[in-house]
Each structure stands twice: as structure tokens, then as C-alpha cells.
Amino acid sequence: MQQGIIELEDMEFYAYHGCFKEEQVVGNRFIVNISIKTDIEKASKTDNIQDALNYVTVYEITKKEISEKSHLLEHLVGRIVDAIVKKFDYINWIKVKASKMNPPMGGQMKAVSVTLEKNTERNQ
């Protein structure tokens, strides 16, 4: 087995997450980063998309989950992790970081972020 880490970096979305009513109406920019550890041995030899984790599917899952409102970033990243692990049950580890850009905190702040890591490796 040849472990590799696949990363989808700086995916940008406009969404409506937050505890304040205004956040759920006006919305905000969100940046999502995902890292996935999986066996890439077959894909590295065959050069066939059928043997690789489909990045487009990971993006589409993320887009779907971020389009559904959450009050908390913790809830959002949990949903993203669960949906990706459900679709790709063969991945060994996943890390999802979601950042709310310019959050309404009463002062200047670039972003607030929540990161969730999950070890999904099964005894083989």
C-alpha cells in the first residue's frame, strides 16, 4: 500500500452560516481546505481516473454541505467530514478546515476557522 495525501485547497464559497440572524440572511465568504489520506498505489501506476479518489466528487459534496445552513462552523465541518467518509469508505484519514472570512466580531479579523480531523483507518 502506498499512502498519499490528496488536498483540495482554498475552495471558496458564499454561504449563510452563523448564529446571528443577519449572518443567515446576508451571508459571508467561506474558505474550505480538505486533506485526505488514502492508498494511491494503483492510481500512481495505472494513470486511470477509475483508480483514484475523484476530486470533483469531493468538491461537489463540500459544495452541497456548505449550501445547507448551520449555526456553527463545528457543525458544518462535521457534516462535510461525515458526507465524504460515507461516500469514500476506503479513505484512512481526513482533515477539513472551514474559515469564515471577516466574521462579525466587533473588530478587524481576517477569519475564524474550525478544523476537524478524523482517523478512519480500518484494520486491514
* Proper CATH architecture: 2-Layer Sandwich
Per DSSP, the total helix count is 4
The amount of beta strand, in percent, is 25-35%
Globally, the shape reads: elongated
Question: Given this structure, which CATH class is correct?
Answer: Alpha Beta
Kindly describe this structure.
Belongs to the DHNA family. It catalyses: 7,8-dihydroneopterin = 6-hydroxymethyl-7,8-dihydropterin + glycolaldehyde. Its EC number is 4.1.2.25. InterPro entries: Dihydroneopterin_aldolase, FolB_dom, GTP-CH-I_C/QueF. The chain has helices spanning 21-26, 41-46, 55-67, 73-87; strands spanning 3-15, 28-39, 93-101, 111-119. It is α+β, with helices and mostly antiparallel strands and 124 residues long. It has one domain (3-119): GTP Cyclohydrolase I, domain 2, CATH 3.30.1130. A four-stranded antiparallel β-sheet has the order 1-2-3-4. The chain is elongated, with a radius of gyration of 16 Å. The chain starts with a strand and ends in a 5-residue tail after the last strand. The relative contact order is 0.22. The mean pLDDT is 93.
